[in-house]
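Batch manifest, entry 17 of 40.
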Amino acid sequence: MKKIVAILAAGTALAATPAFAQDATPAEAFSGFHAEALVGYDHIRTGSSEDIDTTRDIKQSIDGVEYGGAVGYDIPLGTNLIVGAEAEITDSSASRDYNNSQPTVFNLGRVDAGRQYYFGGRLGYAMSPSTLVYVKGGYSNARFNLQGTDGTTNLRQRLDTDGWRAGAGVEQKVGSNAFVKLEYKYTKLSDAEFDFNGNTPDSSRFSIDTDRHSVMAGVGVRF
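Output type: structure tokens
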């Protein structure tokens, strides 16, 4: 009799195991810590509707490849919603060089997009245990390396800029822990200061109007 009871108990436990697994919500499939690598298209330009008010033919924009990595942590909110925090660091190949023959971005002969930091959050909706759509937003700090001339002296300095970012994307699970993603992000840079690399104090802060559009693909793993 005891053997029969034991067999029945074991069978009941085995039958219940799939039921517990099915109780996991779609949002829980996207919870926890994750890390990812990113690469995509980077377009940076003046926020003005015209390149230069008096000379429309001078292009004040730069394009390149943005690449880097990000980490984040997501928490499920109910059945389908998740909320998370994330941090990102990227660099970019975007640059423009006119050899000082005519003005370009910031009226200097060469501009290179440098590193960019981002700290923010995201809100996502799990359409299924394998597909998540989300919106995101937060703070961004981007550096530009500038080079120009006043006619007699070559000028080299760094411009540190601050602004906000908004974006949206879709994340798709691949296997149990890996995922791929595609997202669009828009960054508005509105404040800046010249960074003299510790040789002299940084300049006073001033206003700028720069737009940054990026389309990024990512691959990552969730722990």
